[in-house]
Design a protein that fits this description.
The protein is an alpha/beta fold and 250 residues long. It has helices at residues 2-17, 63-68, 75-93, 104-114, 129-135, 162-166, 183-190, 229-233, 237-240; strands at residues 20-26, 30-36, 41-47, 122-125, 142-146, 156-158, 171-175, 196-200, 218-222, 245-249.
Length: 250
């Protein structure tokens, strides 16, 4: 499973860089973990699960335990584990010369337009509303599959149909929240022949090379160096998207 592959990379990185736990927190929208190597700090973020079981319980103090506790069918513990993976990933990204841009939503829209034509079948797993809205001005074959809201007349469908649809896509955009469970593995299984598969959003802040051989082709996420933690605890969704972004080929 992809989650465990990412976890293995994160555990190895803890050893190689002597990383330590600083703090973790869970708000209504964001779950975050902050780590340090003794000199530099990094913060990872993921979506806080909703209506998917108990949340908020974790065992602080040990970075490895925080990662491993995600190996249970508990959405809250897995969120802390994923935010820890993303914190370690942000630590690694800080050591590289990333090509950073402003506005992830705008850059993702441009990326999709550049890699598609008018009749391309573009499918979203998760309703990335600003991106979908902007694309619909120039593309007509866009479908969204999500859990929270459906609107069949506007091609926003229940996610129980997503596996049937994704095999027919030309471009597949996958929210990083799928990493919280095995959903991502099923999606990748049914989309083997889709040429462009992008995992995106603030939950997708995982080190790009860790996705090698997964079937994903690109990662589009945020660079959260020096993030203001009030952004996370006050659940400011728009503010988090003001941080620099990157779209990296895997």
């Amino acid at each position: 499973m992809l989650f465990y592959k990412l976890q293995e990379n994160a555990l190895r990185c803890i050893e190689e860089n002597s990383l330590q736990f600083v703090e973790s927190g869970m708000g209504a929208l964001f779950t975050y973990t902050k780590i340090t190597d003794g000199l530099n700090e990094a913060t990872g973020v993921c979506l806080t699960p909703k209506t998917e079981g108990a949340i908020g319980r974790f065992c602080p103090g040990d970075l490895k335990n925080l990662l491993i506790q995600g190996n249970v069918y508990d959405a809250g513990k897995r969120a802390f584990s994923l935010s820890t993976m993303n914190a370690i990933s942000q630590y690694l990204l800080s050591k590289e010369k990333l090509k950073l841009e402003e506005d992830l939503r705008d850059n993702l829209t441009k990326f999709i337009l550049k890699n598609s034509h008018e009749n391309s079948k573009i499918i979203f797993i998760g309703h990335l509303q600003p991106v979908v809205k902007a694309l619909k001005e120039k593309r007509k074959n866009i479908s969204v599959f999500c859990r929270q809201h459906t609107d069949v007349e506007n091609k926003i469908y229940n996610d129980i149909y997503e596996y049937e649809a994704i095999s027919q896509a030309d471009i597949l955009i996958i929210t990083g929240a799928t990493l919280l469970g095995s959903t991502i593995d099923a999606i990748l299984h049914f989309s083997k022949n889709v040429p462009i598969k992008v995992i995106t959003g603030f939950s997708a802040g995982t080190y790009p090379s860790w996705f090698k051989d997964s079937g994903l082709t690109h990662v589009a996420s945020l660079y959260l160096k020096n993030i203001n933690h009030s952004t996370l605890l006050h659940n400011n969704l728009n503010e988090i998207f003001t941080y620099p972004c990157y779209i990296s080929k895997i």
